[in-house]
Design goal:
The protein has 179 residues and is α/β, with parallel strands linked by helices. The chain has two domains: 36 residues; 140 residues, Glutaredoxin (3-Layer(aba) Sandwich). Helix content is 42%, strand content 20%. The chain has a seven-stranded mixed β-sheet. Helix 4 packs across helix 7. The model has no long low-confidence stretch (mean pLDDT 87). It comes from Candidatus Rhodoblastus alkanivorans. InterPro entries: Redoxin (IPR013740), Thioredoxin-like_sf (IPR036249), Thioredoxin_domain (IPR013766), Thioredoxin_ResA/DsbE_sf (IPR050553). It holds the Pfam family Redoxin. This is Redoxin domain-containing protein.
């Protein structure tokens, strides 16, 4: 039996290239979050962002599905590196100042970068949880951030939208969905 060296080298190169492409897709396309997502609208837990405090100096807690069950809540998924999230941040600050309670999900972000962003630009969030792998917003059907979700009452999702909103849009879309 004769083994063709070129076929062996080609096969080995193809295997290495396939493994590299698979690893790249796993890391950069969020395949882990899409294929093995442990979150559902009625079952999730987001840890608090260490070091984040409210205006009184109290730690801002994370949140879970158990914390919101039976309540009407607005969740905003964002990331410090996202230009659209940065653009909408002032509208969220104004929405919070108007009395809205916003639950934040810091998605696909590093905790230290999220903390720096919120300390620099203000914290509009009543509660904030870290969603480092994007499990929550993907479990709720979003494909990108910023994303907006209203549960009324939780775990019933009554409103979902992607993309930045200004203050007028927040008032016109989120407030009626919470009622």
């Amino acid at each position: 039996m004769h083994i063709d060296r070129r076929a062996v080298v080609f096969g080995a190169g193809l295997a290495v290239a396939s493994a590299g492409a698979g690893l790249w897709a796993w890391r950069h396309l969020g395949l882990r979050a899409r294929l093995f997502n442990p979150f559902r609208a009625d079952h999730f837990e987001l840890a608090a962002l260490p070091g984040l405090t409210d205006a009184s100096g109290a730690a801002v807690p994370g949140f879970s599905s158990a914390d919101i069950v039976g309540k009407s809540v607005y969740i905003n998924a964002f990331a410090s590196w996202c230009p659209f999230c940065r653009a909408e941040h002032e509208a969220l600050m104004e929405f919070a100042r108007s009395g809205a309670r916003i639950y934040g999900a810091a998605s696909l972000d590093q905790p230290e970068k999220t903390l720096h962003f919120l300390r620099e630009n203000g914290n509009p969030y009543f509660r904030l949880g870290m969603d480092r792998h994007g499990f929550l917003f993907r479990a709720l059907g979003a494909r990108g951030i910023p994303a907006h979700f209203v549960f009324a009452p939780a775990p019933r999702l009554t409103f979902a939208a992607q993309g930045p909103m200004d203050f007028a849009q927040l008032r016109a879309k989120i407030l009626p969905a919470l009622a």
